[in-house]
Amino acid sequence: MNAIQHTVESLRHTFRPDQVWPFLAPENAKVNVDKDIILYVEGLNLSFDGFKALNNLNLYINDGELRCLIGANGAGKTTLMDVITGKTQCDSGSVFFGQNQNLLNKDEAEIAQLGIGRKFQKPTVFEEQTVFDNLELSLKTDKGVLATLFSRLTPTQIDRIDDVLKIIGLAKHRFMLAGALSHGQKQWLEIGMLLVSDPRLLLIDEPVAGMTPDETERTAELLTSLAGDRTVIVVEHDMEFVRSIARTVTVLHQGSVLAEGTMDQIQSNKDVIEVYLGEQEEGATS
Ligand SMILES: Nc1ncnc2c1ncn2[C@@H]1O[C@H](COP(=O)(O)OP(=O)(O)OP(=O)(O)O)[C@@H](O)[C@H]1O
Ligand SMILES: [Mg+2]
Q1: Summary count for the chain: helices (H), strands (E)
Q2: Residues 84-109: pLDDT tens digits?
Q3: Is the CATH number 3.40.50.1110 carried by domain 65-78+115-285?
Q4: 37-48, strands of its sheet edge to edge
Q5: Residue to mutate (ligand 1; options 79, 119, 236; most atoms within 8 A of CB)
Q6: How far apart are the CA of 79 and the centre of ligand 1, in A?
Q7: Which of 8, 11, 129, 184 is the most exposed place for a label (fewest CB within 10 A)?
Q8: Which pLDDT tens digit goes with each residue over 233-278?
Q9: Does the C-beta of 77 come closer than 6 Å to ligand 1?
Q10: pTM for the full predicted model
Q11: Domain-by-domain residue ranges, the chain?
């Protein structure tokens, strides 16, 4: 064996094609979902000045499911999302992403890096930038300021943005300023800004508030299409919308899970009618 053959042989030995080096593996691969559960929330407690916003809350979310979270104002829905994403610390309990990632000892950036994307109720797109630029910026946010300013998109990244534009139905509006989009389109763009980094779990808070009926229907189609490959948790008060997308619905009440089941089971549950759905109907008629 000459020197070159020897070098090639040793390189082949070093870079084994059957092996993915840990530092090259995508962050998402580090989440163990062997038990088909992607999120474990157990015994979660959080008080604000003695008021229990979360009260021994237990919740398990299956990998790939689309789960709807409902409950009256102040039930703890947004607070739960705040704890899962590291925005707020809880007093006690545990939150695991897959079997192995303890989210309570991670900060917001680390949790996002693991593949958890969160959309707040109000759209926060950059109005002065085009739709495409908004997606480009969110693709690069983890690269630091200089890299964001000077780096060019790779062909793979451009393909990714094109795919996302199609998924969110804004391909024709790619060069439009985000500020010129309708409210619903801004919400879709913001979902797209999460999708460019290919999250594994999406937490979406009240996506259809303020949307037209047509936009609401298209949002239902969008979120339904995202589940399966990803897991989606949606908080929403619009019961017609929840019925159109939900397989399993979880009802929160005073920081705990009050009921869980199909929409039919939930809508005929006496406790749920008493504390939430009855109140909603009164609200609708007044
Ligand atoms: N930072 C905070 N300081 C004090 N109280 C808070 C804080 N965040 C939330 N709360 C309280 O915790 C309770 C739960 O609030 P949360 O926002 O989670 O409700 P929600 O279920 O999302 O309600 P909504 O449907 O109105 O959005 C409320 O009573 C709220 O006032
Ligand atoms: Mg809320």
Answers
A1: 12, 10
A2: 999 999 999 999 999 999 999 999 99
A3: no
A4: 51-62, 37-48, 92-97, 101-102
A5: 79
A6: 6
A7: 11
A8: 999 999 999 999 988 999 999 999 999 999 999 999 999 999 888 7
A9: yes
A10: 0.86
A11: 65-78+115-285
